């Protein structure tokens, strides 16, 4: 997929992933529709609240519904381990679970959370940002993907660890998870108050302190550290500052409500062409 508003990232075989630029304003319905068309995926969004929860997207919109089906577990009964190893059993369990507990999520607003996960083809998970760090995660072998929104609150609250643990519960192998970090505000552009700096330092995050008492939080660098500590492997880091780059939105620099972001998903079709293209990449770039 080539489009000037998309920054492709290679998270592995049969994984579709991009970061976006200001060419798509994801705060706007027109921009969201254009992104869906450019990626060929049904896009799932979250109502981001700077927390640590992940919602699983179980089903794309269909003729009966205009909303996605969300859950707080990857599949199955909340009191049982998720059934991820047997596709048929999983589907049956999922419908049971949906009928019992999830119909209320249909036709409602997106879930309030800062991470979306899925194991379902054709869905693009989107996190929207304008200085915060968009993170895309995938275990290509297990077929589990996730998108995470990392602001300073989420970083300090542990949203990265929470998302990796949720992926693991959904069948991903912690050390098979590949991570891409998208454009975010750089440390030099992100001065924070002493209260935030103190909390960040206490949490072991990266803070630069100036001689006159100023403090700057390194959100992208801290995100990379957290991902590595969680066991993920960093594949790409788009180290481009939102406050300095003219092609990116920045809340700090522009006070804009517009948003770029990141999208990750399992493509709907595994055509031979796609498989061959990925096979070439796999041989050239990859992996143990
Ligand atoms: Zn900067």
User: Which architecture does the CATH hierarchy give at level 2?
Assistant: 4-Layer Sandwich
Strand content: 15-25%
Shape: globular
The description of the largest β-sheet is: 7 strands, mixed
Looking at this structure, what is the CATH superfamily? Answer: CNF1/YfiH-like putative cysteine hydrolases
The level of helicity is: 25-40%
Total helix count? 8
CATH topology tier name: CNF1/YfiH-like putative cysteine hydrolases
Q: What oligomeric state do these chains adopt?
A: single chain
Radius of gyration: 19 Å
- Tally of individual domains: 1
* SSE succession: EEHEEEHEEEEHHEEHEEHEHEH
Overall pLDDT, averaged? 83
Structural class: alpha+beta
Low-confidence stretches: 76-107, 272-288
Instruction: Let me know the number of strands.
Output: 15
**First-last Cα distance:** 26 Å
User: Class in CATH?
Assistant: Alpha Beta
* Lateral strand order in the biggest sheet: 5-4-6-9-8-10-14
Write out the distinct hetero groups bound to the structure: zinc ion
């Amino acid at each position: 997929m080539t489009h000037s508003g998309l920054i492709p990232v290679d998270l592995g075989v049969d994984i579709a992933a991009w970061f976006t630029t200001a060419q798509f304003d994801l705060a706007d319905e027109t921009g969201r529709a254009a992104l869906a068309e450019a990626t060929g995926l049904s896009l799932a969004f979250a109502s981001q609240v700077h927390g640590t929860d992940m919602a699983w997207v179980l089903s794309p919109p269909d003729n009966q519904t205009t909303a996605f089906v969300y859950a707080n577990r990857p599949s199955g009964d909340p009191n049982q381990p998720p059934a991820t190893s047997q596709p048929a059993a999983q589907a049956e369990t999922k419908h049971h679970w949906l009928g019992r507990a999830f119909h209320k999520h249909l036709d409602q607003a997106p879930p309030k959370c800062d991470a979306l996960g899925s194991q379902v083809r054709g869905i693009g998970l989107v996190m929207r940002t304008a200085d915060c760090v968009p993170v895309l995660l995938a275990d290509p072998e297990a077929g589990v993907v996730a998108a995470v929104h990392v602001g300073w609150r989420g970083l300090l609250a542990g949203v990265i660890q929470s998302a990796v643990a949720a992926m693991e519960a959904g069948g991903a192998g912690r050390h098979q998870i590949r991570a891409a970090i998208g454009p975010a505000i750089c440390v030099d552009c992100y001065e924070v108050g002493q209260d935030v700096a103190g909390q960040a330092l206490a949490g072991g995050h990266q803070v630069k302190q100036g001689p006159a008492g100023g403090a700057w939080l390194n959100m992208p660098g801290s995100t990379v550290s957290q991902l590595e500590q969680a066991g993920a492997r960093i594949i790409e880091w788009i180290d481009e500052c939102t406050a300095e780059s003219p092609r990116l939105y920045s809340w700090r620099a522009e006070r804009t409500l517009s948003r770029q972001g990141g999208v990750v998903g399992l493509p709907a079709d595994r055509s031979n062409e796609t498989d061959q293209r990925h096979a070439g990449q796999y041989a050239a770039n990859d992996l143990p």
